[in-house]
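Box 4.2: Ligand-aware structure prediction
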Amino acid sequence: MNPDKTTHFGYRDVSPDDKTRLVGEVFSSVAGQYDLMNDLMSLGVHRLWKRLAIQQLSPRPGEQALDVAGGTGDLAMALQRRVGAGGRVVIADINAQMLEHGRDRMLDRGITAGIEYVQANAEHLPFRHNSFDLATIAFGLRNVTDKQQALVSMFESLRYGGRLMILEFSHIVLPLLSRLYDHYSFRIIPWLGDKVAGDKDSYVYLVESIRRHPDQKTLGAMLERAGFEQVSWRNLNGGIVAIHTAYKL
Ligand code: SAM
């Protein structure tokens, strides 16, 4: 393998193509248990993080929203409630199983209109440039092979004046919390993955991918490099996750 062309899959160095394939296998494997595992692993706190992120983004009635790596649709449902019937919500995700699972979930909740599903790679979003008022990506960016390219693609999809919100695991800023969190991450989460989803490896990847994700400041600089302005971030729970916001001006 050419070392200039390697990237990370958790703690392993792999080729970019292998990373995309391996991430695909992770989410195809976990799709059926994804929502249950999110609730168990975070003790439901991921719902609060998502609610705060949507509040901060403040979607308005009639807006056109794009949820990248939208998976089973938590953010898309919240966006749809805010943009209303006059707006539009598109979920773009690379993984057919995650999209299918999301669609079933929404049908079960009686949501039959207002959300479109597009299977697409975040690095090359297939939308007209300058078309969305807002874009979101929640717990998705760290799984993307070329994160910088994904930021550029989201920038292109947004209209001028549009805004981006990234909700992602980040770097803890409190040393004591960091030690507790390491214990929880490396011991409890893989155990839960094994017992509940029957797939320990995917949850080891989850924990390792969080450690490899750029910290708050690095991600802020990547957003600026992609063309975004007024970049800012807010830590939640001591930096376990961070909400980055940025504008295309
Ligand atoms: N946004 C959802 C949420 O917050 O619950 C799902 C997050 S899930 C941890 C990560 C999602 O990213 C998966 O649905 C996966 O298929 C998707 N994904 C991974 N790589 C991607 C890529 N290159 N382009 C688009 N989606 C991708």
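In the box above, the bound molecule is S-adenosylmethionine. The pocket of S-adenosylmethionine is lined by residues 23, 27, 69-71, 74-75, 93-95, 98, 121-123, 138-140, 143-144 (CB under 6 Å).
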